[in-house]
Specification:
By secondary structure, the chain is mainly β. Helices cover 0% and strands 45% of the residues.
Length: 419
């Protein structure tokens, strides 16, 4: 089955008959596509696959400045600290730029591509890399404070919570580190890759996250004990939104789910026309907003899941939603950053990046597996087989465990090998 074709199987059970497992990940190539932004002091800052970082007036959509990096910048919101902003790039650099002028303050080189945006806490910038490391870098000087090695690619936006730093990895583990030292204090194993393109959802010491093993998890962050899990029909790369004791998240099975955050019980679901991958929703005055690979940006009633309006872009929408003055701002693969009126869906402005050439993305490695699908629908007794050549990277090499697995020794260095 081709990666871009529909995988229209809803809440099915998968029996793996045989497998030739390797990790699947996507890489963007040159183009003007945008995946999201961050807004600070009335300015929208974002990266693009045209190699530029942009600053755009959030009121008017007019360009203020742009800065060229050495490769695609398919990140979401930058991190901010003082007068500076921070974004990473496929060229393996973390950039520190002056917010007002766009001039470079410093850059820090990781060992490989950087997918996810950085985060900042107490003057330290944290970010992950394809080289499997998560880095802690001083926000003022660009000096490395520590690094922590995971078991595979760290396509993660590290999330600070009290004295902890939570990260994910393609090795299937959710790690908890001491934020100041980078030493590991605990880990929880899933059966699939963990990707988070914005900070994890943490509420009242509970962390909620998805995995490519098709599950949404709720863990106690102190004990890393599982409280509940909810199984969707396909891999979850979307960071959920928790509000009013409800949890909202999109899945690559085309559904946006609303769950009870305390029990994991489903309240409603809304089916879009295609995958809801990395886009993360926002809620304004009882309305929830999100985008889809089907080119549509949706507004639903957050209580009932009923559609209120939709806006159609010219290409896929994987972008998280940024709220600005009762409007919503998001990027699209169609090379535009959009701002819409949150109530009506009317376009306020659309900013076009430096090229109308759409960035293509490809799956760099494949999963080959013969899968038997047991349909849950009544009357369907026969198993239906699918040959997946680019599909969910299910980690079957290790045993899935309901318990947390702890290791108190981590590998990290006080000096960077790459600067």
């Amino acid at each position: 089955m081709d990666f871009d074709k529909d995988f229209d199987i809803e809440l099915s059970d998968f029996n793996i008959k045989k497998r030739d497992l390797s990790f699947r990940y996507w890489i963007f190539e040159y183009g003007g596509s945008v995946e999201g932004c961050g807004i600070s002091d009335g300015v929208a800052y974002f990266g693009s696959c045209d190699y530029f970082i942009y600053a755009v007036d959030a009121e008017t959509g007019k360009l203020i400045w742009k800065f060229r990096t050495g490769d695609c910048v398919p990140n979401y919101a930058p991190a901010f600290y003082g007068d500076n902003l921070y974004l990473s790039s496929y060229d393996s650099y973390l950039y520190c730029l002056n917010k007002k002028t766009g001039s470079e303050v410093w850059r820090f080189k990781a060992g490989d591509k950087c997918w996810s945006p950085p985060t900042c806490y107490d003057g330290i910038i944290y970010f992950g890399s394809k080289d499997s490391y998560v880095y802690a870098v001083d926000a003022k000087s660009g000096r490395e404070v520590w690094r922590f090695k995971t078991g595979d690619m760290a396509i993660t936006t590290p999330t600070a919570y009290r004295d902890k730093l939570v990260i994910g990895s393609y090795d299937g583990f959710l790690y908890v580190l001491d934020r100041k030292t980078g030493k590991e204090t605990g880990r929880f194993k899933t059966a699939g890759n963990i990707v988070n393109m914005i900070e994890f959802a943490i509420d009242k010491n509970m962390i909620y996250f998805g995995s490519f093993d098709n599950n949404m998890y709720a863990l106690n962050l102190d004990t890393l004990k599982e409280v509940w899990r909810f199984k969707a029909g396909y891999g979850i790369t979307c960071v959920p939104l928790v509000e009013n004791k409800k949890l909202y998240f999109g899945s690559q099975d085309h559904n946006l789910y609303c769950l009870d955050a305390e029990t994991g019980k489903e309240i409603w679901r809304f089916r879009a026309g295609d995958r809801i991958g990395s886009s993360t929703s926002a809620i304004i005055e009882g309305k929830i907003y999100f985008g889809s690979k089907d080119h549509n940006f949706y507004c639903l009633d957050s209580e009932t899941g009923e559609e209120i309006w939709r806006f159609r872009a010219m290409n896929e929408i994987w972008s998280p939603v940024t709220v600005y003055k009762k409007s919503v701002v998001f990027g699209s693969i169609d090379c535009h950053l959009y701002r819409l009126d949150a109530k009506t869906g009317k376009k306020i402005w659309a900013f076009l990046t430096s090229t109308k050439t759409v960035a293509t993305y490809k799956v760099s490695e494949e999963v080959s597996a013969e899968i038997t699908v047991r349909q849950e629908d009544a009357g369907e007794k026969d198993d239906e087989k699918y040959d997946l050549t680019t599909s969910v990277p299910i980690d079957l090499k290790s045993e899935y465990s309901f318990k947390s697995e702890y290791a108190f020794k981590s590998e990290y260095h006080t000096k960077s090998e790459y600067v």
